[in-house]
Design a protein that fits this description.
The protein is of the alpha/beta class. Helix 11 links the parallel strand 7 and strand 8. It is globular.
């Protein structure tokens, strides 16, 4: 690190700032080098820490080296396989589904047919130990108990139509903390990008200074979708009925799949269902059919998209207090 300033170091490893807070030391200025900082550190600060200048400098060097080796990319999933269990009546579920990064699967069926339970099985890496008796394999293998516990929080990101913040932070502060925890190389640029992505999804704009608690439901979901797509390391995303979330749902799915994640979407929306390459049809708590989206359905998707654009324009007219127009063919 000789000759490099803290500003140079922070650009590569923002989480390095945490060292000084943890040690109770004053934060160094960006223009100062580590050598100069530790040489000029007050005796009272050294006495408080109980270390010499040399020991502190060595400890910081080890801390920084450990950060460079830290794996923040999350679990790597080349394939996700779900093997059938039983339906609510105990009958076998004929399912052996394997998904790979970039796959989008829609879960469709009446309310209470088992879509949410399916998402929960994936989230918990079920191993015949849930009510459905399904098994979920990672990269072709069952995760052992230790791996299931360690993976469960990092493997899956979940987005639902009910999402609200309780943190007393501004949007920019929240995103900065997340970007720094991911060791982003250019935190301010990442924050700007995520805010822009969220605004592309939401019906009403937000900015970095907006308090999280002041966000509407649609803004909250737009922010979290942008955050998951750009910053979240989880390779699997579970989406539960976001069609009424007040966001551009087609852009949302496109953004998530463009980040190379496996996406499972529980939905009642034909537009979202046909955006997926496959859809699982649920009945009586189990998958009753797996349907590939056909070329004919792709044509239907184009017609539905055009209709949806007209409905979106009509909604915007209502929001802006303009006369509502719905162009006829």
């Amino acid at each position: 690190m000789s000759g490099r300033t803290f500003g140079d170091i922070w650009r590569e490893m923002p989480a390095g700032r945490d060292f000084f807070g943890l040690q109770g030391l004053p934060a160094p200025a960006d223009a100062v080098t580590p050598e100069a900082y530790f040489a000029d550190l007050a005796e009272t600060a050294l006495a408080e820490v109980g270390l010499s200048r040399e020991e502190l400098a060595e400890r910081f060097a080890r801390f920084a080296e450990a950060l460079t080796r830290l794996d923040v990319s999350g679990p790597r999933v080349a394939s996700l396989t779900i093997r059938g269990g039983t339906d609510k009546r105990g009958r076998p579920e004929a399912l052996d589904l394997t998904l790979t990064p970039g796959d989008v699967v829609a879960l469709v069926g009446p309310t209470g047919s088992g879509k949410s339970r399916f998402l929960a099985d994936v989230e918990w890496l079920a191993d015949a130990d849930t009510p459905t008796r399904r098994r979920v394999l990672l990269n072709g293998a069952v995760a052992d108990a230790t791996a299931r516990l360690s993976f469960s929080g990092r493997l899956v990101a979940q987005l639902s139509q009910n999402m609200h913040f309780v943190m007393d932070l501004a949007v920019g502060e929240f995103l900065t903390a997340h970007a720094e925890s991911r060791l982003a190389a250019d935190v301010p640029s990442v924050v700007t990008e995520v805010v822009a992505l969220a605004n592309d999804l939401a019906g009403e704009p937000l900015c970095a200074e907006t308090p999280l608690t002041a966000l509407s439901g649609g803004q909250s979901r737009a922010l979290m979708i942008a955050d998951v797509a750009r910053l979240c390391a989880s390779p699997i995303v579970l989406v539960d009925e976001i069609e009424n979330a007040g966001i551009d749902r087609c852009k949302a799915i496109s953004l998530l799949t463009g980040s190379g994640k496996i996406v499972l979407v529980a939905t009642h929306d034909p537009l979202l269902a046909l955006l997926a390459t496959r859809r699982l049809v649920f009945a009586v708590g189990a998958v009753a059919a797996v349907i590939e989206t056909s070329p004919a359905e792709r044509e239907t998707l184009a017609a539905l998209t055009a209709m949806d654009e007209k409905l979106t324009a009509a909604r915007e007219d209502l929001r802006r207090g303009r006369p509502v127009h719905f162009p006829k063919e």
